[in-house]
Write a structure and sequence with these properties.
By secondary structure, the chain is an alpha/beta fold. The protein contains twelve helices and twelve strands. An eight-stranded parallel β-barrel has the order 1-2-3-4-7-8-9-12, surrounded by four helices. It has a four-stranded antiparallel sheet with strand order 5-6-11-10. One of its GO terms (biological process) is D-glucuronate catabolic process.
Length: 352
């Protein structure tokens, strides 16, 4: 295991900082990733290779890139021709990643973004996103949720429907997604992409639904990958595949339970031996199911040292990336906060 970062539109100086902090791997989370898009609007293998070599020139590995699935999940339910056209593009992008020397792409099954309902003050006055199911309101969703790569405080991008919102909408705008619909959409995506990924030798790293929704959903939208049972059903879609697995977001899995440490450890010990953990978002929360806030890794409810030991026990050898750190006016780009997370994680690795 080793530390790495998930970055959006990094510069040379930002990559130098990652290398100086000890990172061994980088995941490009840029959506849309204009640096690798060719004249036809799709990923170009030569440009993918150039991005990979650029990361390698800083002494790090390009672990993977974000595959922007856009609104394909909702479209598979309501606009099948649009979904089919998008699936064709995504298959081309997966092949371009392989041809450019990148063996993993990550994607999210979030149709309605990452739902949050508010913000609370953390230590020293940092601002922490929260989700309290009982406080869900459409206006809170609009103000505090994450959509695509758009952060909660970027009101202009959200209001303008920027490409960076990645086709995600509020739950109140989705028109309802039943459990059956949720599974039908996910199965559509897996069936559309997995054969190409398997043939190309590319791992598809799925980010589960964040957060787990209450029974009955929110505004009729169900988060079917919001429980361990849901994650188990997901991998059962292709039980022998080496390409179907997880962008294993530890914080998201902690949000599924009122006993977050126990649930995260169970998930690691379930999916680690199956080689379904392709990358890790090594992050913490304070609280649990239906009532939590985002937290720095040392102050949350999950025993992070126990998680490191569990990853080692199951033989995980990949990257650990910080994610969803709180916000602060004194660290607007959050570089110091992410640096703290990386140092904390590296110390845990050494201590273990």
């Amino acid at each position: 295991m080793y530390i790495g970062e998930q970055l959006i539109n990094p510069t040379d100086s930002r990559l130098r900082l990652s290398a100086q902090l000890g990172c061994k791997g980088i995941v490009i989370d840029t959506r849309p990733n204009t640096a690798v898009i060719g004249e036809d609007g799709l990923w170009d293998a030569g440009k993918v290779a150039a991005q990979r070599r650029w990361i390698e020139s800083h002494g790090m590995r390009l672990e993977g890139m974000a595959l922007d699935v856009g609104s394909i999940l909702l479209d598979s339910l309501r606009a099948p021709e649009k979904a089919a056209a998008k699936a064709k593009e995504l298959r081309r992008n997966i092949q371009a990643a392989a041809d450019g020397g990148v063996d993993m792409v990550k994607y999210t099954v979030a149709m309605v973004g990452i739902t949050r309902t508010g913000e609370v003050e953390g230590r020293g006055g940092m601002r922490c996103s929260t989700f309290k199911a009982e406080e869900y309101r459409a206006e809170n969703d609009a103000r505090f949720s994450y959509w695509g790569t758009v952060l909660p405080d970027d009101e202009d991008a959200r209001a303008g429907g920027a490409a960076e919102t990645c086709g995600q909408v509020m739950a109140s705008q989705a028109g309802g997604v039943s459990e059956a619909d949720g599974w039908r959409a996910i199965e559509y995506l897996v069936e559309a992409l997995l054969p190409t990924a398997e043939k190309a030798g590319v791992k598809l790293a799925c980010h589960p639904h964040d957060p787990a929704y209450p029974p009955g959903g929110l505004n009729g939208v169900h988060h079917v990958l919001g429980s361990l049972d849901g994650l188990k059903r997901f991998v059962a879609l292709a039980p022998e595949s080496k390409s179907l697995g997880f962008n294993f977001c530890q914080g998201t899995i902690a949000e599924m339970s009122r006993n977050p440490t126990e649930t995260v450890l169970e998930a690691i010990r379930t999916f680690g031996p199956q080689n379904r953990i392709f990358m890790v978002h090594f992050r913490n929360i304070r609280g649990g199911y239906l009532d939590f806030r985002e937290a720095m890794p040392d102050e949350g409810s999950v025993d992070m040292a126990a998680c490191i030991r569990a990853y080692r026990e199951v033989g995980y050898k990949g990257v650990l990336c910080p994610d969803h750190v709180p916000f602060s006016d004194v660290d607007p780009d959050r570089e110091r906060f992410f640096s703290f997370c990386l140092g904390y994680t590296q110390a845990l690795l050494q201590a273990a």
